[in-house]
Design goal:
The chain is about 60% helix and about 15% strand. The strands form two sheets. The protein has a five-stranded parallel beta sheet, sandwiched between helices. Strands 6-7 form a two-stranded antiparallel ribbon.
Length: about 250
Amino acid sequence: MIFSILLLLLIFISIIIYQVKSQFYSNLTLIVKGFSKILMAKVLIIDDDDSVRKIVTHRLKKNNHETYSFSNGAEALQKIKEINPDLIILDVIMPVMTGYEVLQHLQKDSELQTIPVMMLTAQDQLQDKIKGLEYGAYDYLPKPFDHQELSVRAEALLRLRSLQLQLIKAERLAVVGHVALTVKQEMEKPLKSIVKLSETLVVKAIPSDIKKRITHILESTLRIERILQKLEGLQDTPVKDYLSGIKMIDLGKE
């Protein structure tokens, strides 16, 4: 009876620790991958002028980005979640739906409202720029535009998007570290009880097969304690400089 209770408790604790570790390393992988995201981003181009779409597409593909072009906002909004772009380059005056209306739809959706938007339009008056920024655009480039300026501004917004995503993932990682500490604190007492009971039973005169199983439980419990010690250390995961102003997790440090 005692052996069965010990075994069930050990299995339960092992499952919890496995889940915490899996969640941590899943978030860690996403964070490391995220730093290379700017190298090949997804850019959504919405403009009713076919020549403009071709020029923007050509320029961004030279920078190794993936592009998706639409001639009106309504079509783009139908596909936007499927594409999950890192940047939207948006015209203002278009059939079916104006650029301002597209911005309004983006701002109403929590999944889309943080995607950087660059307005690309012939409307270059100050009040037009202010209106676009008030509707949620991040940048405003008047037509006709310099191709190099377009490229530089797009890269700046993509860097911003990359940093946004890293912040979100870093916050998730911090939560996992907090959960790991909570797990350790909650499991410490029952684990010590298992160790104490196992050490008491293993020296008693009991059948060898039972003694072997209890010894296995004791060894496994001690191993779990070591894992919990490592999980506690996740809160102090070391970081190192990666790019200017950016730090990343130092995977090489024990």
